[in-house]
Each structure stands twice: as structure tokens, then as C-alpha cells.
Amino acid sequence: MTANTENSGNTETKGNIEVIGRMFVFDFGPSAIYQLHFVDKEHREVTVMADAAYPPGTLNKFDIEMTQLRPNVYLVTWVEPATVTR
Questions:
Q1: pTM of the predicted model, to two decimals?
Q2: Does 83 reside within a domain?
């Protein structure tokens, strides 16, 4: 997996969570590439760039919880909605 970062223009100030307002591209291989945007400390958007099951551009929004483990290290958790596989 590789992750690239992209700053969406927000300035970072002391005391803020540094990933807020930033976008990260997670590359798990040729058919699993996603752009993660940490909108704020309670919301994240995931845009599909490549996926075997979803078309590029598919946008998923998640409510997240960020728990600081140490300075600049956070555990990010979320619950994905139930889906039915046929």
C-alpha cells in the first residue's frame, strides 16, 4: 500500500489535527485505489479512483471518530453501513 498526500489549501495551526482538510490517495493495487478526504474531525469522504466493484468517482461519506494515541498519531474508526451481497 502507498499513500500520497495532497493539501486542499487549509493552513495548519498549532493544536489542530494535521490531517483535517487534507486528501490522501491510498493505493492497494491496480484495482483498489481510493482518495480519502478528512473533511473535519467527525467526517471523511472516500472517492473511488479504481475498484473492481464500484465505478471511478463513486463517493462514500463516513462519520468518523479520531482518538489521539500520541502527538500526530490518531486511531480513526468508523462504522460502514450494512450491505447486501447477492
A1: 0.72
A2: no
Contact predicate 70/85, CB 8 Å: no
DSSP structure class, residue 10 = P
Task: Tell me if 48 sits within 8 A of 54, measured CB to CB.
Answer: yes
Q: Using an 8 Å Cβ cutoff, are 59 and 45 in contact? A: yes
CA distances from 61 to 23, 43, 44 (A): 14, 7, 6
Phi, psi for residue 78 in degrees, rounded to 5? -160, 165
86 in a structural domain: no
Range of the domain at 66: 2-78
Total domain count for the chain?
1
Per the domain annotation, does 84 fall within a domain?
no
Per-residue pLDDT reduced to its tens digit, 50-71: 999 999 999 999 999 999 999 8
